[in-house]
């Protein structure tokens, strides 16, 4: 029984780790924490680069040709497009009038901000006010995310025998939108973007890092 109750030298084993062992554990934990921080910085920096350097697909200056323009939804204020959403819509109008496409799909469901119109309805109303024929606008009033925007729009395209689309959004949102369109099988992937003059870009670009991370995690299971 001596070997069971006593250490090699016949003394009882210590109930606590030695100071050196504790120091080694602390050092290992600090190294792991430092590596985690470095990995996080690299990850965020890579996504930030993708977000801030996206200028459109195909590259700016290349002629965009499609059957339909898909304007991705954003917040309404008092049932009207917010200033940021108007920028997307105005960019879509410019493309439409340049002959890039002949029809619109406007996307977005009901906001949780007291709106009584869906994002798509508010966008449709704005386009009509700007002289776009209502017959040229199709609404997706159910989607609640960029993935759903593009997925539901794809179903609308199939019902209307439209083959090619150009996605219209802001530049900070363009890289993720292009990646989602590619995952959904859009061919070709075309994303035309505008730079905001009214949005707090530091906030939106930082928020987009989180949204992009969430999308890439979700993408692995699709």
UniProtKB/TrEMBL annotation:
Matches recorded under PANTHER family: ENVELOPE BIOGENESIS FACTOR ELYC, INNER MEMBRANE PROTEIN, PROBABLE PERMEASE
Keyword Chaperone: no
Keywords from the UniProt entry: Membrane, Transmembrane, Transmembrane helix
UniProt-recorded name of the protein: YdcF family protein
Family annotation (Pfam families): DUF218
InterPro entries named in the record: Cell_Envelope_Assoc, DUF218, Rossmann-like_a/b/a_fold
Organism in which the protein naturally occurs: Cohnella luojiensis
Record field: transmembrane: 28-51
Protein's UniProt keywords contain Transmembrane helix: yes
Biological process terms in GO annotation: Gram-negative-bacterium-type cell wall biogenesis; peptidoglycan metabolic process
GO cellular component assignments: plasma membrane
Sequence ranges assigned to domain DUF218 in this UniProt record: 67-203
